[in-house]
Amino acid sequence: MSTDTLTSSLHHYPLRGDITVPGDKSISHRAAILAGLARGTSRVSNFLCSSDCLNTLAAMQQLGATVSPAPNPSSFSVTGIGGSPSLSQQPIAIDCGNSGTEMRLLAGVLSALPVHAILTGDSSLCSRPMGRIITPLSAMGAQIKDRGEREGCAPLEINGKKLAFTESPFDYTMPVASAQVKSAILLAGMLAEGQTTVRQRQKTRDHTERMLAHFGHEISTSPDGLTLTENGGARLQATDISIPGDFSSAAFWMVAACVQPGSEIILRRVGLNPTRTALIHVLQRMGAHIEVLSQTDECEPYGDLCVSYSPEFHGTDIRADEIPNLIDEIPVLSVAAACAQGDTNIRNAAELRVKESDRIKTVVSNLRAMGANVVEFDDGMLIHGGAELCGCTLDSFGDHRIAMSFLIAGLRAKGSTTLLHCKNIDTSYPNFSEHFTLLTR
Ligand code: S3P
Predict the structure, then answer these.
(1) 400-410 vs 330-339: helix axis angle to the nearest 10?
(2) Which of 14, 296, 349, 420 has its CA 20 to 30 A from that of 202?
(3) Per-residue pLDDT tens over the stretch 316-373
(4) Distances from the Cα of 60 to the Cαs of 106, 147, 154, 161, 274, in angstroms?
């Protein structure tokens, strides 16, 4: 069977074992970008050597950063450009593959550096909305154009230059809750002259702010965490970064252990940034047994989690304020909800429609194909849990999180479940199959 097609079957045994999930995807992108921009040599460890993050590192090398030894294994040194990218006559063509984070964050950086660049990606990425970064970056003075077949979509052409707003500070209120948009603005603002303020209506993951501080560029945050202000002209200083495990990758095993009778697993060195961990609270509300065994606070908090089977697992209502904090976990949470007793209501989550796939449509159609009772809404879904799931052949729609979520669903379904178009699992969790075998053997 090709690695683009994977199968899982009803599993009669508990999940057992102890694994360390790979490095965090969001943090790895940011480590590559900031180490690549900084003055001096940074040591990066536990970088996620997935296709997405390696693309970001390659982009920074195209700008003149050097990496030694070649990544993979996941620890290496990056010597940054110290603010001066290599100059080239030709536009730099950067392939962002499947990664919205890479495209949006790099668009912020490149808008403010003296480079001419074209950012492109795969068909999924070239159909995702880029207007959300084009609007604020253009308002900052950036020259950034959508050159895609669809309006507001990649490829993006950027004619970068020094941005300056010395007369009046740049002040922007984001219409969508998006860490990628926030980060694009903060990165452009950091390289610009003048002051930048970004206002959010809801809190989003704060990895960019934390890592900028780690590289010596402080961002001031309002007490409610919604308004961020920085002064431009930052000089990032190289530093060492140790990347914790990806909470979003750990999420698949958390759900699997909650729903599989007799399970007890330990997940080591999982990132526990409070802007990412709402899934723990939601699963606990559903009756899950999840314990944080130890926690360490560095640039990012991380710790070991023990997750065991929850015999009384039941549905819940997801609050609007929880959505940005668990946006990437909603596909696997939907699988948990289908295995729980009672209803789970997920609303205010229209952002799911513009992820690597339309995750409302893809989750609903796959859950229904397995026999679950689901109502679809424009901004979410209502899952009536407790129906017996049946194995079948499902499409991943090229979406890594859909593929992994439904391989987990296959553990609870009668018969076997085959997922097509799974190769993008490599974008976030290259050793997923190995961990699947390890925990389920
Ligand atoms: C990410 C932010 C989120 C998330 C994505 C990674 C990041 O997207 O869904 O997988 O690294 O900043 P939005 O910021 O668009 O919500």
Answers:
(1) 20
(2) 296
(3) 999 999 999 999 999 999 999 999 999 999 999 999 999 999 999 999 999 999 999 9
(4) 9, 22, 19, 17, 29
DSSP state of 379: T
- Give the β-pairing of 164-173 and 193-199: parallel
CA of 200 to the centre of ligand 1 (A): 14
- Mapped onto helix, strand or coil, the DSSP state of residue 142 is coil
Q: What is the per-residue pLDDT across 266-281, written as a single tens digit (0 to 9) for each? A: 999 999 999 999 999 9
**Structural domains in the chain?**
5-23+244-440 (3.65.10.10), 25-242 (3.65.10.10)
The Cα–Cα gap between 130 and 231 comes to 25
User: For the stretch 131-161, what's the b/e string if a residue is b when 16 or more beta carbons lie within 10 angstroms of its beta carbon?
Assistant: ebbbebbeebbbebebebeeeebbbbbbebe
Strand ranges in 192-234 using DSSP code E only, listed in sequence order: 193-199, 220-221, 227-231
pLDDT digits 0-9 by tens, 414-425: 999 999 999 999
Which of 328, 395, 399, 426 is catalytic? The answer is: 328
CA dist., res. 89 & res. 432, Å (int): 42
d(Cα 101, Cα 49) in Å, to the nearest integer? 15
Instruction: Answer whether 180 contacts ligand 1 (Cβ < 6 A).
Output: yes
Backbone phi, psi, residue 180, to 5°? -70, -40
Which helix (H) or strand (E) segment is 320 a member of?
none
The full DSSP string for 18-63 is EEEPPBPHHHHHHHHHHHHHSBSEEEEES---SHHHHHHHHHHHHT
- Say if residues 216 and 210 touch (Cβ distance below 8 Å): no
What spacing in Å lies between the alpha carbon of 203 and ligand 1's midpoint? 12
Is residue 55 within 6 Å of ligand 1 at its C-beta?
no
Query: How far away, in angstroms, is 99 Cα from ligand 1 center?
Result: 10
On whether the CB atoms of residues 260 and 11 are closer than 8 A, the answer is: yes
Q: Which atom of ligand 1 is nearest to the CA of 351?
A: 16
- Is 328 one of the catalytic residues? yes
Torsion angle of the four alpha carbons 431, 432, 437, 440, in this order, in degrees rounded to the nearest 10: 140
CB 180 within 8 A of CB 207: no
Cα(199)–Cα(217) distance, integer angstroms: 19
